[in-house]
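> example.struct
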């Protein structure tokens, strides 16, 4: 049962050796102290490492007790040893793991401090971009407007068009800066989850986007109510629906009207996620461009042909992935597109 009983004194031998010689270094000193304590106090105890009779190295928990005669004099000492090798090895392993955890915590604290510093630097950069770049842009737009007003009646139609083009490009740069700021804040700004009725949220988004009257937009009847970060979910839907409106296929246009468009929005619960979909009958996306559209600053049309910063879908992708979801696109050129994204499901119904 892992125990050993031995009679010991200065001259007793075990497998040809003095009992004390089994214990080396710190264990030897502890064995001597245990003998002294046993003689003085009636019991001595220590833990030591030594080989068994078969030479197998093991850890032992040793208790030394005296045997006395009728007059109370110690006539011999007896040691009882229990094999504690497994427990000792577990303790050593635990100590090693504890040390590793301490090192990991130190590394984590250092990394957290570095991230905090980087975030502060990014916040300062964001302020610089917002203030030092946007202010001159507003000035350029205002100056061009004032020049046009001062020269009213003197500018040719071509010059007026150039002034308009200048302001459009200033507005594009302003939108691009706003997009970069929004992209940089994703995952760094704490947004609190709240109860969100997705059907009501979509109604608010559609009202703010004001789609043309030629558009038909249908929202599934079973839109859930979930606990989610309302602002982030709103940004995702606004970008996807806004893109569907913007990229409506001109070939479906009625004479003299804005192109007729159709958008369908649905939701399906899949385990711990909801899968939302936004489908349109727009111009579609060629399969070889499916991955490209989620890259930052990527557009499939010239910016002077269709106003776009090329950052909207990259913001959508980053938000969704930061929240633990995924986004995919199903589309062929000329056949519309369906964007599907998953969102963690925390029911609040």
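> example.seq
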């Amino acid at each position: 049962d892992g125990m050993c009983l031995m009679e010991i004194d200065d001259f007793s031998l075990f497998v040809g050796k003095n009992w004390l010689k089994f214990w080396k270094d710190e264990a030897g000193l502890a064995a001597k102290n245990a003998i002294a304590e046993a003689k003085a106090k009636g019991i001595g105890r220590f833990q030591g490492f030594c080989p068994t009779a078969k030479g197998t190295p093991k850890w032992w928990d040793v208790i030394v007790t005296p045997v006395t005669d009728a007059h109370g004099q110690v006539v011999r000492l007896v040691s009882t040893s229990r094999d504690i090798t497994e427990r000792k090895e577990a303790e050593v392993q635990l100590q090693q793991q504890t040390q590793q955890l301490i090192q990991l915590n130190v590394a984590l604290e250092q990394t957290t401090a570095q991230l905090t510093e980087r975030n502060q630097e990014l916040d300062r950069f964001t302020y610089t971009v917002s203030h030092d770049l946007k202010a001159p842009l507003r000035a350029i737009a205002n100056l061009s407007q004032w020049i046009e007003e001062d020269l009213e009646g003197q500018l040719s139609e071509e010059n007026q068009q150039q002034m308009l083009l200048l302001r459009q490009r200033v507005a594009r740069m302003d939108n691009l800066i706003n997009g970069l700021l929004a992209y940089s804040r994703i995952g760094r700004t704490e947004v609190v989850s709240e109860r969100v009725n997705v059907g009501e949220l979509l109604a608010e988004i559609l009202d703010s986007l004001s789609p043309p009257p030629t558009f038909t937009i249908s929202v599934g009847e079973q839109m859930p109510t979930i606990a989610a970060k309302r602002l982030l979910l709103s940004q995702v839907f606004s970008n996807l629906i806004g893109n569907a409106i913007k990229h409506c296929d001109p070939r479906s246009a009625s004479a003299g009207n804005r192109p007729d468009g159709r958008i369908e929005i649905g939701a399906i619960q899949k385990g711990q996620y909801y899968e939302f979909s936004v489908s349109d009958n727009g111009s579609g996306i060629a399969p070889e461009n499916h991955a490209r559209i989620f890259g930052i600053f990527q557009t499939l049309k010239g910016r002077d042909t269709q106003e776009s910063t090329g950052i909207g879908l990259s913001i959508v992708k980053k938000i969704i992935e930061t929240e633990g979801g995924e986004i995919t696109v199903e589309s062929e050129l000329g056949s519309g597109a369906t964007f599907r994204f998953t969102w963690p499901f925390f029911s609040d119904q």
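> remarks
Confidence is low (pLDDT under 50) at residues 9-16, 251-258, 302-307.
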